[in-house]
Amino acid sequence: MSIVNMKDFGVEPDQGSDATLAVFAAIEKCKELERPTLVFPKGTYHFWPEYAVERQYFIPNHDQNKNRRITFPLIGMKGLTIDGRGSEFIFHGLTLPFVLDGCQEMTVKNLTIDWERPMLSQGQVIGVANQSFDVEIPWDYPYDIVDRQLVFKGEGWQEPCKGIIEMDPLTKSPLFQSGDYLNYGNYAKLHVKEVSPGVVRFSEAGSQLPKLGSQLIFQCGERDCPGFFINNSTDTQLMAIDMHHTIGMGVIGQRSENISLQSFNVKLREGTNRLFTTSADATHFVYCRGIIDIEGCLFENQMDDPCNVHGIYMTFFKRIAEDTLLLRLNHKQQRGAEVFLPGERVRFIQKQSLMPHFETLVKSVRCLNPEFYLVTFDRKLPNSIDLHSAVENVSWAADLRIRNCIARGNRARGFLITTSGKVWIEGNTISTPGAAIKISGDANYWFESGAVQDITIRNNVFQDCNTCFPEWGSAAIDIDPEIQKPDSQGDCYHANIIIENNTFIAFHPYLVKGQSVNGVFVRNNVVKRSERYPSPKQMTFEVILKNCKNVIVDHIKYPSEPLIIVKY
Amino acid sequence: MSIVNMKDFGVEPDQGSDATLAVFAAIEKCKELERPTLVFPKGTYHFWPEYAVERQYFIPNHDQNKNRRITFPLIGMKGLTIDGRGSEFIFHGLTLPFVLDGCQEMTVKNLTIDWERPMLSQGQVIGVANQSFDVEIPWDYPYDIVDRQLVFKGEGWQEPCKGIIEMDPLTKSPLFQSGDYLNYGNYAKLHVKEVSPGVVRFSEAGSQLPKLGSQLIFQCGERDCPGFFINNSTDTQLMAIDMHHTIGMGVIGQRSENISLQSFNVKLREGTNRLFTTSADATHFVYCRGIIDIEGCLFENQMDDPCNVHGIYMTFFKRIAEDTLLLRLNHKQQRGAEVFLPGERVRFIQKQSLMPHFETLVKSVRCLNPEFYLVTFDRKLPNSIDLHSAVENVSWAADLRIRNCIARGNRARGFLITTSGKVWIEGNTISTPGAAIKISGDANYWFESGAVQDITIRNNVFQDCNTCFPEWGSAAIDIDPEIQKPDSQGDCYHANIIIENNTFIAFHPYLVKGQSVNGVFVRNNVVKRSERYPSPKQMTFEVILKNCKNVIVDHIKYPSEPLIIVKY
């Protein structure tokens, strides 16, 4: 095994200067070697975008139509290990730390990732009045008021604030019953002015107001720079990595086989009062295969879910020939994705019921532009394929194992599972303001495909989930495929969901809610009442299932009911 | 020769629907054939961007960092002829008509190009008062006043006005002594309000005001969609094409060999009162070779020069190793250009004097990003190469023949020549508000390289050039390399400029101004006084040369003077 040491490329730790060009040269050196290890002597390294490699990537679930500046452009490499030896990597501005594209057997380990100036900002509520509140914003989150907008400033960027998440400094989580009430459209209604240097007043705030002392997280910018973009790669390992921030997701994988995350921690930065980490999901995997193995990881305080695994539905747009369709990628953040390649197997579904009605193979794909693709199939398509159809790739579906992880303090949900691979969710402690586990699928808004076939949720602790109910999910385990019109035959979208030996510590009645599953097994779970949040004294805990088949809840079989409510 | 007819792809002329998908299919068909001709039955065809092929191209001298939607994506093709048979192609929104990339022996002919809604707008001055003027904007140039800005609206775009060019409806040219006085920074000072539907008042206009009855051209948007982008191609012919508008240049060629334009007309649209054509240069060629042959073309009323031929200077940024430099592309519209490839010959110059001091070959090029390139050369570089150095590619320099063309009515200059190939400018009639011919070169602002070595300007008529003097050039023939500090040895940047048998019909004294040329031959020209524009009664015509060597002006030899003024 050959060692390449960063010190041989003119870079010492703790210099404070830009190590980007040295990394570029070291990677070029590694390309000449067999199974190299690139070693960083322990210390702090800084990376700016100025000399970073620029590429256009359509990174799924990020904002498109932009080029990215990449510090570690790992493209077409095999067998490289990057060992940070406990170093801290500090990024500046719009910089994407790692791209692994067309790689095999790559490992990145033993390092910390943070930004000098994060894209998120934070302030404390110091005054609350009728329909208005004042926030003190510390000097390390510089801002301006421009055209009556609150605009945050960073290294090479200026971005208007687009929303606020209210955090409880005691629980370090979104405040009880807060949710997105100051985000998106609600944020846009607020009036902003500076009342004194570092103090900003928000007025026209409506009836729900933040609490004195709350920390507010200000969201701005687009999803530009995930920590790791893993694309068309096999056998990727990320180990012992602490990620304090990214301008996007922590890890986003696409069309990659076998991804392993061990002690990959999206984690608050100690020594600061920051209550945020990454500005979107901690991890997210689109059309992967093999196994996604996530073990011993902490996912806290990111601005979206800890993990989401899914495929993509393209929709029918126009029939061009007997065997050829013009298909559309609908969601803006999915545009440009390579959904199908020749030889891959596809399944057509009916958009309203999500029920499949035809399968075949892809013969050729011509991407016209990120939105429209001309796809030719290996046979004549039946007339049932029409404007009500969507289509998914069934050649790519990962198994997923999430074990001994902790998820807490983030905005939104916990683990979002839409993959037909085998799934194990075991030994985790999940404490999320929305659903701890969400099993959805829809072909009309998010276009995230992948009916589950075999999922085991076992030995987990669900601790005070759904603190922002009904926002972000209606039960600790929320099985909610977005079916507009159930199948007339009674067929189900999902199958075989086992929920066993878990502990629910809950202040909230809904343990499991679900619909359209053939095979639900809820057994041997322990339910404890939590006193941490207010709840009705006489509350019972419930499992609610609708349009499901082959249901067993705690040894009671419910073979055919349209609506099953089990109370504890 | 095989004919592919558009009517076989579901498109009839004059249908009014989008022919883009049919063109895509027809091009795919052509790829299967030997030397095909794609024929359009005569009529009108429409093209929208929605289903057009999208690619990222760094198109030189256009705005970068964007993807383009391309109607005719001619990529890697050979021997295709597209014959419009006199058809009219109407484009909609941000659509780039033709890309020829990596092609050989391609011909496009017999067609007209226009836009349903051009990116330029036009209105008439109907009132002039103290520091303010009113403009009537017809309904076919829809606009809004947004945040006190005049914003024009088109198909899929809304763009603030960025400047005004004042046109004289009698001469159909920029008004005498107008220039850019209402453009760029001067425009930004104007206050705008609507005084009645379709009438906009501009106030705070300073002392120079437009004339009652003038037509004003409103510029907006970026340089997005040239008519033809010819990249990495050989033997391209454009024949009998009338181009009434583009959102960018008419033709932009890069790294291409042998480009022929015959009866390629950038031309006002008859039947309208439009006084504009393309929104930037009619033709522009960067690092081409072989011959650029422009014959019998009309270039009128485009918003920049009729033709510009040049290379690019990259500048020294940092020495990385004995043989390796970090080089920079400085001008924003040059970013991303492929300036050097391995094996090509480069010349280093001193930025202030433009004098060369070292030549060598390129060994490897690694484009880090559109701004910075790591370039390794075939030998150790001398210490004289430093922050004062720029470098050009001397393996690419086109010959240029411009014959029997007419240039008139446009904003800015005429023919801009910076190429070391052999150049003939013959038999043209040039009537431009700036210099008719500009021979420049600079390494500090535009970074356009290419000292001329052999240029013959013969049998042309220069009719009333420099109507906007001193803006856009100080003589009909303006030889003005931007030398900050002349070479101490007296060496010259340009060489061998012959100006003979031309007719200057001029109201303006300066026929030729020049500096830093070794070999200027001005002979047998006819100079006539024009009465069309006001000029002093006692005016003499002048040829002014500075820091030139080997000068012959009308059989009088001027061997060594630092400043030569010849009066007629």
UniProtKB/TrEMBL annotation, chains A, B:
Residues 121-216, 324-387 form the GLAA-B beta-barrel domain. It catalyses: Hydrolysis of terminal, non-reducing branched (1->3)-alpha-D-galactosidic residues, producing free D-galactose; Hydrolysis of terminal, non-reducing alpha-D-galactose residues in alpha-D-galactosides, including galactose oligosaccharides, galactomannans and galactolipids. Signal peptide: none annotated. Coiled coil: none annotated. The keyword Oxidoreductase does not apply. It comes from the Bacteria. Keywords: Glycosidase, Hydrolase, Repeat, Signal. This is Uncharacterized protein.
